[in-house]
Design a protein that fits this description.
mainly alpha, four-stranded mixed β-sheet, 29 helices
Length: about 625
């Protein structure tokens, strides 16, 4: 009698993988199981007993059980229906790692670099050098409101607190982590707190070049890189410690990874899937808006696989599994924030659903200013915007696959934002900037080809070289204009760049300029001077009130200089009050209406203010509160 067949054991590599998955599932479960009194004692031991509340314990248990269930489900899939695929994937990873040859990769990179000619290479070096030079020039500009907010509220605190306190979408967690490390190593210096965005900004320029070369031609990549190197929004967020430039960089890298995943046969490369996953998770950790880029790329790949009749496992199962794993990794990263703050970040105006009528009125303005912000630079924004229109037509006609990959991200963004009913300010769309640059570069290259079209039939090689020279000249000229522009503008974008727009609906409805003429960013240049001016005259019993938007940058530099004088807060009788506002603001109106002040006490609203200094920022002093109150009472 034959013995029944016993199931074969999974390979050791798969068993190790399953073991790691199970361990990752047991860890959050172990955190969720302890009784409440034990968690309370643990909080008391670490000085956070008051933070251990019933609501947070409930969230800890729910996220712990959820993560454990997800990992155990993944482990069971790896051992059953997904076992064959797991074996093949692990084997592919090992084979691809073993086949890596650094010397061969260097030779290919060298050949790839010189095949476009020395002039193209020289122009690329000019673009990269300009990108670095412009950003270094602005690296030490005074702190902006949002980056001062990030530092004061999150980055200077212990790292576990900064990463867990996700009470607002203004806390860009990856940025908070980088700022915290820089602060601990170098102190609260502007250049140190911005090093990570400087690296991401320069990396975005190089990634845009590579992506343009992969999706179209080397000339397109060169012009697109020049546009990204000089566009105001990318320059600003390369020297502004926030997460926006990271999502733009990760978006470019994600498209760069998905293109070969879709086109390589007979099946996608395992390491590219891993690389795309790491890029996606890092982007989500920077800002959750990276989800728009992920959905766009996954949607493009899934539709492409269905149209090409790929095997079922590559049509939807592979992309769906990859998306699930990225979501699981992102859930791990945001789990501490969920335990501490729940979903309070969803109450932020940028992500809170608007009434349909409000959203419908804001939506065209939001996308209009997104395009303007993504094309605004040393040349008038309508010029690259016009080439965007041409580029869309050209890509549709000549590079249909690239067209759908590039447009899939803004299409997914539009669809999801429509479902969310949100119309955010233009800086939220900054991750689309490299894609806008690629489309504009495609339109410019096609225009140059069209101009020389009659000559292609006679001398195609010579004509192509001429077009290549023109593109190199245009890229270098953009860099020269940008360098001249940055010498004239002390801040990226000058007075009123489009990325400063906050309420797009008001501007759209009133058909006003980008911002109110008085609402420019030059006040940043005077903050340090005002802090230094006030400091010698401070005495015990003084209080400094600072209006929005300079309150947090002022606080940053006061902290940097070791101030002990109270800044902001509720004034008390007997204190000498100093007030710092933008030069065009009236102090009596500001103490009532400015969002960082808004006092209701009659003796503050009726105080008489004496101007001590004027300029982009003004310093005011109130008469002693007790005397003002007495005089008011006698009248």
């Amino acid at each position: 009698m034959d013995n029944p067949r016993t199931p074969a054991l999974a390979p050791a590599s798969v068993r190790w993988l399953v073991g790691v998955v199970i361990l990752f599932g047991l860890a959050p479960l172990a955190c969720a199981l302890p009784p409440t009194d034990w968690l309370q004692r643990l909080g008391d031991r670490f000085g956070h007993g008051d933070d251990v509340t019933p609501e947070r314990i409930t969230r800890l248990r729910s996220i712990g059980v959820g993560l454990a269930a997800a990992h155990l489900l993944l482990a069971s899939l790896l051992l059953t229906r997904g076992r064959t695929g797991a074996e093949r994937f692990v084997a592919d990873v090992g084979r691809e790692i073993a086949s890596v040859s650094p010397l061969a990769a260097m030779r290919r990179a060298k050949e790839w670099t010189i095949e476009s000619g020395w002039l193209h290479g020289a122009a690329l070096l000019v673009v990269l050098a300009t990108a670095v030079g412009i950003r270094l020039k602005y690296l030490d500009v005074p702190m902006d409101y949002d980056e001062a907010y990030s530092f004061l509220n999150y980055a200077r605190r212990p790292l576990y607190q900064g990463l867990a306190d996700y009470n607002s979408t203004n806390n860009h967690l990856l940025n908070t982590g980088f700022m915290h490390v820089a602060y601990r190593v170098f102190g609260p210096k502007e250049w140190a707190l911005r090093l990570h965005v400087l690296v991401a900004g320069v990396g975005l320029v190089g990634s845009t070049y590579l992506l343009g070369r992969r999706l179209h031609r080397d000339e397109v990549g060169l012009v697109a890189a020049a546009l990204v190197a000089t566009t105001y929004v990318t320059v600003n967020y390369s020297v502004n410690a926030r997460g926006y430039i990271w999502t733009a960089w990760m978006t470019a890298l994600l498209l760069h990874a998905f293109r070969p995943i879709a086109t390589e046969e007979p099946q996608p490369r395992a390491l590219r899937w891993i690389g795309a996953g790491l890029v996606a998770v890092l982007g989500v950790f920077a800002i959750p808006t990276m989800a728009y880029s992920i959905l766009g790329c996954i949607g493009w790949l899934s539709v492409r696989n269905l149209r090409l009749g790929r095997p079922a496992r590559w049509r939807l199962i592979g992309p769906a599994l990859w998306t699930s794993l990225v979501g699981l990794a992102a859930l791990w990263l945001y789990a501490p924030a969920f335990v501490l703050r729940g979903v309070s970040a969803l109450q932020h105006p940028f992500v809170k659903p608007q009434h349909f009528s409000d959203w419908f009125s804001r939506m065209p303005a939001a996308w209009w200013y997104a395009l303007k912000s993504g094309t605004e630079g040393p040349v008038h924004w309508l010029v690259p915007a016009a080439f965007v229109v041409v580029g869309l037509v050209v890509l549709w006609w000549m590079k249909r696959d690239s067209f759908w990959l590039i447009t899939a991200v803004p299409l997914a963004t539009f669809v999801v934002m429509t479902l969310q009913r949100v119309a955010p300010p233009p800086r939220i769309f900054s991750f689309l900037t490299p894609l806008i640059a690629l489309v504009a570069a495609s339109g410019l290259f096609a225009t140059c080809q069209l101009i020389y079209l009659p000559r292609y039939a006679e001398a195609p090689d010579k004509t192509h070289r001429q077009v290549s020279v023109i593109c190199s000249f245009i890229a270098a000229s953009l860099c020269a204009l940008s360098y001249s522009d940055c010498q004239a503008n002390p801040l990226p974008g000058g007075l009123r760049p489009a990325y400063l727009v906050e309420d797009v609906a008001e501007l759209w409805a009133a058909r006003k300029n980008v911002t109110d003429p008085s609402n420019n960013q030059l006040w940043r240049l005077s903050v340090i001077e005002v802090v230094v001016t006030i400091r010698p005259d401070l005495q015990p019993g003084d209080r400094v009130l600072v209006g929005l938007p300079l309150d947090l940058p002022f606080h940053f530099y006061a902290t940097q200089l070791g101030w002990t004088t109270p800044i902001g807060g509720q004034p008390q009788p007997g204190e000498r009050l100093l007030l710092v506002l933008r030069g065009d603001e009236d102090p009596q109106t500001a103490v009532r209406d400015n969002l960082s002040l808004r006092f209701t006490d009659p003796w503050i609203l009726q105080a008489q203010w004496q101007q001590l200094a004027s300029g982009d920022l003004a310093i005011w002093q109130a008469r002693p509160v007790e005397r003002a109150a007495t005089e008011s009472g006698s009248r």
